[in-house]
Every structure is written in C-alpha cells, then in structure tokens.
C-alpha cells in the first residue's frame, strides 16, 4: 500500500481532492466556516493531508455500507478553520460531514512531541537521555500553543525547538503518535455516523450535530434539555469511544497500518502507541472542555468518565498475556506523563474510581442507557453489504 504522503497518481487521492469542493461547500453552508484546502500543494498542509489520506485508505469500503432503508453511507471528511479545539459529526441532505478543527490537530501534535521530549516516556524508543525533558510551564502542552496563538501571539522558534524531540527515532515516534491520536478522533467521528448517532439525534430533535467538546452557543441554542437527553448524548459518546478504541487497535492487530514510515515499527510498540494515543486524546478533551469554559455533563460524559470507561474496556477486550502486557505498559507511560503535567489523572486513581460506587454508578447508568438505545439506533445504523 502506498504511503499516504505519496503524491503520485493515487486514484484515491484524486477522488479525495475532487470531493473537496463538496466538503468546502458543506462546511460553508452547515457551519458557516472555511475548510482547510489540504490539496493545494502547500507543504504546511502536508501532515493534514497525510492524516486524511491514511483515514480514507483505512475506511475504503465504507461507502458501500447501507442502513436499514437501503440508503448508502456518504461521508465528507476534512479539516475546518474554526479557532477552537474541537471535532464534529453532522449530516445534511443525505450526506454526513465529519470535521476536525485545525487547532485540535495542531494541539495534539504539540502534545505528542512534548511526550517524547520526556526521558522517562517510552524509554525503549531511541535515545531518551538525549532529550531535554522541558517542563510544561504551567500549561498543558497543546493548550499552551492554542491559548497563545488565539491571543494573537507568534510562536518563537525556541518554543517549538524546546518541544521537539532531539533523537531521530523519538521524533519519528512523536509524529506517529500525533497521527494515531488524530486517527482516534476520526474513527470516533465516523462511529457517530455509521452507528446511526447523528441520524438518531437529528430525528429525535436532541441535537443538530455531535460536537466532541460542547460549544456554549451550539448547545444552549437547542431545545429539549432534560436529564434523559443529557444521558442519551453521553451514552452515544461512550459508544463512539468504544468503536474508535476497537478500530484503532484493530489497525495494528490485523497489520493494516498504512503509514509506510511507521509500519516497520515493532507491532508491540505500535499497539502501545495506539492505546496511549486513545487515552491521551480522551484526557486532552477534558482540558479542551475546560478551555472552552463550557458546562460539563451537558452533552458529554466528563472525559474523566470516558477515560475510565476506556481503561475498563481495554482490560476487558485485550485479554491475551501479550496484550495485557501492552495494557500495563501503556498505563505506566500514561502515569509518567501525568507526573510531569499538572492536573493529569493517574491510572491507579482512575481505576479506583471506576470501581468506586459513584463512578461505576454513573457509568453503569450510561451503559444501561446505551443498551436501551441500541434497538432504536439499529434503525439508523449502517452496515457492510454482507451484513457482517
Ligand atoms: Zn463524540
């Protein structure tokens, strides 16, 4: 399979570039926003383009999927220039729209690079003592960049240098981690589409679209605001998280990594990075939610609960000795980063709370709501033509 960066005559790339006009139009009409044109040949958009190309290759067969009424799944995906750290899934005129806001993509790249500047993080990769191990300066890496640039600041080269891993292998691993975190977000948004969430919330009048981080205006402007509505929307997030976690893991477990530059990394390392990326992304959304000063729990589980849910799911799902070792190692890596970043949750605490009555009570309630919802969602769900 060609590297997503390959700019020759890949028909998929030509197809994606062609559909960009529709994406741009849809983003303009639905969101009143501008789409980032990753196909314009600008090298600054190279990583954005690679992320989209990789995704399109991973999900190649998905446009043959149909729902119960025989309708085909149509999705337009891309980046939008809205200066918030967010992502969304939407639908209009029979076509789904999946978007990552550009600041989110930039922020998660900064976060993943920061991780590999830490000498204790993934100590088996490259030459950790070569790294400078900078401290985050009071802000979460990724958040700093966002806050600073939104205030109109220009990032000094020293800042980027400080947050760039020195060792070549660690630098490559940090880029890969950024792509894996973005992949987790893409899969999560796609799950909102093919699991029927977007169609369901629109049909039921629960929301116009699903945002990753609640946007104060977007949420406040919609009608039915009840506990039931809140629980429903939160249950859908757990469902999308589960699908994205599973899909991210499966890319590695079934040898379908399509970033050629990273596919030669050891399979164990790729699984660890994929799992760490999923946890870190879920945790980062908590920070983004704080940043947006939006109300917790209105449309999303507190990401703290989402992260607990993910840790619990991993322990249930990835049960071979080898995969449990991957799991344990990822929890240690998470704690090593949590030791450096103020306010980041530790996995032991997360697991204790998961077992604790309050958290498991809330999680249990949302999981029960999800079970209740499944027959209704089934009407809107898209599945492959062979019904698998
Ligand atoms: Zn979501």
Count of helical stretches: 15
| Oligomer class | single chain
Ligand kinds: zinc ion
Task: Give the total of beta strands.
Answer: 4
Instruction: Provide the domain count.
Output: 1
Numbering strands along the chain, what is their spatial order in the largest sheet?
Answer: 1-3-2-4
On the 0 to 100 scale, the average pLDDT is 87
Q: Quote the beta fraction.
A: 5-15%
Radius of gyration: 20 Å
Task: Specify the biggest β-sheet.
Answer: 4 strands, mixed
Description:
With 388 residues, the chain is mainly alpha-helical. Helix content is 57%, strand content 5%. The chain has helices at 11-31, 46-58, 102-117, 143-150, 157-162, 168-194, 197-203, 216-220, 227-253, 260-263, 267-291, 303-317, 321-338, 347-355, 357-378, and strands spanning 75-80, 87-92, 95-101, 210-211. The two termini are 25 Å apart. Mean pLDDT is 87; it is low at 218-224 and 294-298. Bound molecules: zinc ion. The site of zinc ion has 6 residues, from helix 6 and helix 9.
Output the keywords.
388 residues
Describe the structure concisely for a colleague.
By secondary structure, the protein is mostly helical.
